[in-house]
Amino acid sequence: MIRVVLENLVKRHDEVAIVDGVSLEIRPGELTFLLGPSGSGKTTIARLISGLDQLDDGEIYFDGRLVHEIPPQDRKVGLVFQDDALWPRMTVAENLAYPLKLRGVATAARRSRVTDVLGIARLETFAGKRPDALSSLQRQRVALARALVDEPDLLILDDPFSKLEDRVRNEFRDEIRRVLAEIETTTLILSSNPREALSLADQLAVLDLGRVVQSGKPSEVYNRPVDAFVAQYLGPINLIQGQVESTDPKGDLVVRTPLGRLVGRSDAGSLPSGSPVTVALRPEALAIGPHAPFDANRFAATVERLVFLGELRQVHLRGANDWPVMALALQPQSQSLREGQGLTVHVSPDHVIVLPARYALNPETAPASMPRPIPAANPAPS
């Protein structure tokens, strides 16, 4: 298992930086997700690591060894592409054996290795079939097995779930976890799907416009996003504009918002009074009802709309100053809610994320339906 380190990677196309100073550590034996929207530079980074594209600047290390001058075929990187790229006229077993044949591996050794990998991937019964006889899920499993047959030091999967139907995605996620636990290979998955990244990753890096915006454990990145982009990309979130009033004795920030004063936490530390900020609240962190911990933030709201999601309900609310807020509630705990009902919403300061000015939502680019911050001169609702 190897440790891969990317230091300030740059790749330009027509003088435009497709990858712009990316630094990232892919730890030995861990599953790292590089998450970002289409066009953010994910595939280009994979091609740079594997040697298919040349760097314009920066350095790539495999276990401390600089790999710039090592040709792609000698880097021991296994790639699984979005479209599986299986050879249509070869059987499953032949697809797995062909990379070994190109390397000059002896026939007996090829057969032994193919048999081993077919067993690991649980594909023995498909060995004699051709790709056109397989389902999309089976083809992806074969592509994964073929990438493993060469015993790569680093495995890279490029959006492996994107071509799969929703009903089989969970099955393939479980398959990847099972296989990776058995072979213990350092793995990088490129994805544009936050749910898959959050549920699978040991480490998560969020990419935007060719730059790593934030990296860390999935729970840390989800619960403590550094900016509005990360916060919104990883899941539904309420963004509320405000201004810092003060810092309380615990070191938490007191923020004046259209919903009232909210106490929250900022990873940027203390911010001066009057600083413009954006407060981020995850819907599942909002609790509805009269009973709340003594130190919880509270604000009044009216139920505007209820959306049934099976085990959950989306509760669309209107707070003070007509500010929209969305909460999530378990179905048994939300059956008595009715549209037009007034209620109290409370949220712990631990779940109030305060984003400083350089990360704040820009009022000029906010949706037209989103109310603007109330002027500082107005009395703050309480």
What topology does this entry show?
Blueprint: E1 4-13, E2 16-26, E3 31-35, H1 42-50, E4 57-62, E5 65-66, E6 77-80, H2 92-102, H3 107-120, H4 136-148, E7 154-158, H5 166-183, E8 186-191, H6 194-200, E9 203-208, E10 211-216, H7 218-223, H8 228-233, E11 238-247, E12 253-257, E13 260-264, E14 276-281, E15 287-288, E16 297-308, E17 312-319, E18 324-330, H9 331-334, E19 342-347, E20 353-355
Parallel strand pairs: 3-8, 3-9, 6-7, 7-8
Antiparallel strand pairs: 1-2, 1-4, 4-5, 9-10, 11-12, 11-14, 12-13, 14-20, 15-19, 16-17, 16-19, 17-18
Instruction: Kindly report the average pLDDT value.
Output: 88
Q: What is the multimeric organization of the chains shown?
A: single chain
**What's the number of domains?**
2
Low-confidence stretches: 360-382
Largest sheet: 6 strands, mixed
The CATH architecture of the largest domain is 3-Layer(aba) Sandwich
Q: Which fold name fills CATH's third level, the topology of the largest domain?
A: Rossmann fold
Shape: elongated
What is the total tally of β strands?
20
- β-strand amount: 25-35%
Tell me, what is the CATH class of the largest domain?
A: Alpha Beta
Residue share in helices? 10-25%
Number of helices: 9
Please provide a written account of the structure:
- The protein is an alpha+beta fold and 382 residues long.
- It folds into two domains: 4-223, P-loop containing nucleotide triphosphate hydrolases (Rossmann fold, 3-Layer(aba) Sandwich), CATH 3.40.50.300; 237-359, OB fold (Dihydrolipoamide Acetyltransferase, E2P) (Beta Barrel), CATH 2.40.50.100.
- Helix content is 23%, strand content 33%.
- The chain contains nine helices and 20 strands.
- The protein has helices at residues 42-50, 92-102, 107-120, 136-148, 166-183, 194-200, 218-223, 228-233, 331-334; strands at 4-13, 16-26, 31-35, 57-62, 65-66, 77-80, 154-158, 186-191, 203-208, 211-216, 238-247, 253-257, 260-264, 276-281, 287-288, 297-308, 312-319, 324-330, 342-347, 353-355.
- The strands form four sheets. The chain has a six-stranded mixed sheet, sandwiched between helices. The protein has a five-stranded antiparallel sheet with strand order 13-12-11-14-20, with no helix packed on it.
- Helix 2 (92-102) packs across helix 3, helix 2 packs parallel to helix 4 and helix 4 runs parallel beside helix 5.
- Residues 360-382 have low confidence and may be disordered.
